[in-house]
């Protein structure tokens, strides 16, 4: 198969969909890899390194899309890329379609076969291609939050860990999954007081066990959410209903009751955001804004800020599934691997993921009726 790797164009997105090591794995299996010039530079991989393992370097991204049968990316296509796809092309990347009607429409119109990293799902419920970036974003959420709490960034002017004689900051994490657990690890490590809210009692029990009394766990209900938001110096939003638009767990009224200068980091922004007052996606260039006296941060590609770590971590998970797509072709690969079938969000003009169809009020088509 001919595989194309374009340079990412989202604001400050320095990850790349394939490293030279990954390219070597595809090429060893007889595939051809086309890489846009400078695509890997932000992650520390030069054109020379790609060439040395047998990749072809393209200067013209339009030609790269035209020549490739499968595109391997990191972030969802932006408007300037919509016109580059061709019918039947496999697109293997993060898509986050539930809050993105225009992108969904563009992919349906182009009749691409879109496999979204974030909905590939194992029978256990685990999301193996989301996990590595959730680990990065969870850890980053605390360092970002700690920075925004500094006075000159609009924050309260408190140090997460406090100092002897002064109480530490209160960190509230809503959603105790992969992001939440990694956020808690960092916050506990920095000496903050940490509360985690989740709907799942078994998840709270697990967190209670692994943190061994270092965090408070609370059931996520309206009373606990309101009470926790009032106390929070830093609030991290990281709930997920796979593939669907994020539920708004913190209302505008709750935000109004938060301390002036407290900070919200809404990691769930890539699924539309989990806090009612998050009304925009921000970028690494200009990552925060103020609303009701509270600093809001809503960058949808947080791991893009640490691209070397993130690219290598991401490829560790995406490569085995990418090789299945390339070796067998999309149809056989998804029939053989139900986890990969769960990743199929759009297929030749149809929405094939229920959460996306429901969120966008579009018709859903069971992919097994299209691919047999
Ligand atoms: N902004 C960014 O750069 C990045 C964003 N993300 C996003 O972070 C979000 C969280 O991802 P993960 O932690 O991997 O998901 P996860 O599936 O591991 O955890 C989500 C947790 O939310 C809980 N939950 C669901 N609804 C809830 C509610 N109403 N109240 C309380 N808890 C609720 C679930 O029980 C689960 O424990 C996703 O939207 C993901 O795409 C991930 C990486 C980077
Ligand atoms: C998960 C995601 O969207 C990201 O890593 O950018």
Automatic annotation (TrEMBL):
Domain of life: Bacteria
Domain Alanine dehydrogenase/pyridine nucleotide transhydrogenase N-terminal, residue spans: 4-137
Active-site residues from the entry: 96 (proton donor/acceptor), 270 (proton donor/acceptor)
Record: residues binding NAD(+): 134, 198, 203, 220, 239-240, 267-270, 280, 299-302
Keywords for this protein: NAD, Nucleotide-binding, Oxidoreductase
GO CC terms in record: plasma membrane
A GO BP annotation: L-alanine catabolic process
Molecular functions per Gene Ontology: alanine dehydrogenase activity; nucleotide binding
Domain Alanine dehydrogenase/pyridine nucleotide transhydrogenase NAD(H)-binding: 149-298
Binding-site residues for substrate, renumbered to this chain: 15, 75
Catalytic activity of the protein: L-alanine + NAD(+) + H2O = pyruvate + NH4(+) + NADH + H(+)
Stored PROSITE patterns: ALADH_PNT_2
InterPro entries xref list: Ala_DH (IPR008141), Ala_DH/PNT_CS2 (IPR008143), AlaDH/PNT_N (IPR007886), AlaDH/PNT_NAD(H)-bd (IPR007698), NAD(P)-bd_dom_sf (IPR036291)
E.C. designation(s): 1.4.1.1
UniProt pathway: Amino-acid degradation; L-alanine degradation via dehydrogenase pathway; NH(3) and pyruvate from L-alanine: step 1/1
The keyword Nucleotidyltransferase is assigned to this record: no
Enzyme class: oxidoreductase
Family of the protein in this entry: Belongs to the AlaDH/PNT family.
Designated name of the protein: Alanine dehydrogenase
Origin species: Sinanaerobacter chloroacetimidivorans
Phylogenetic classification of the source organism: Bacteria, Bacillati, Bacillota, Clostridia, Peptostreptococcales
């Amino acid at each position: 198969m001919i595989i194309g790797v374009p340079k990412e164009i989202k604001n400050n997105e320095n990850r790349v969909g394939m490293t030279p090591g990954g390219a070597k794995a595809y090429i060893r299996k007889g595939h051809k890899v086309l890489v846009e010039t400078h695509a890997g530079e932000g992650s520390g991989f030069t054109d020379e390194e790609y060439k040395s393992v047998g990749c072809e370097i393209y200067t013209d991204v339009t030609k790269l899309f035209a020549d490739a049968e499968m595109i391997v990316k990191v972030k969802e296509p932006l408007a300037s890329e919509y016109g580059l796809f061709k019918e039947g092309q496999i697109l293997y990347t993060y898509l986050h379609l539930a809050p993105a009607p225009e992108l969904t429409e563009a992919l349906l119109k182009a009749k691409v076969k879109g496999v979204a990293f974030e909905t590939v799902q194992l029978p256990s419920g685990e999301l193996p291609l989301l996990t590595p970036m959730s680990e990065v974003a969870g850890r980053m959420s605390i360092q970002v939050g700690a920075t925004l709490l500094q006075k000159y960034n609009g924050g309260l002017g408190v140090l997460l860990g406090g100092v002897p004689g002064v109480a530490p900051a209160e960190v509230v994490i809503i959603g105790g999954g992969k992001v939440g657990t990694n956020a808690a690890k960092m916050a506990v490590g920095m000496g903050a007081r940490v509360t985690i809210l989740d709907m799942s009692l078994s998840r709270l029990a697990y967190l209670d066990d692994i943190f061994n009394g270092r965090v408070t766990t609370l059931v996520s209900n309206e009373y606990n959410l309101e009470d926790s938001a009032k106390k929070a110096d830093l609030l991290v939003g990281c709930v997920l209903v796979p593939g669907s638009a994020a539920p708004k767990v913190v209302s505008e009224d709750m935000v109004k009751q938060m301390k002036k200068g407290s900070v919200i980091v809404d990691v769930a922004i890539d699924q539309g955001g989990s806090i009612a007052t998050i009304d925009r996606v921000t970028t690494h260039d200009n990552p925060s804004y103020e609303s009701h006296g509270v600093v809001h941060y809503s960058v949808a590609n947080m791991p893009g800020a640490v691209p070397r770590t993130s690219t290598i971590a991401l490829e560790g998970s995406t490569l085995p599934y990418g090789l299945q797509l390339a070796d067998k072709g999309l149809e056989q690969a998804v029939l053989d691997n139900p986890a990969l079938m769960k990743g199929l969000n759009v297929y030749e003009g149809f929405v094939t993921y229920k959460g996306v169809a429901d969120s966008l009020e579009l018709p859903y088509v069971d992919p097994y009726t299209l691919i047999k």
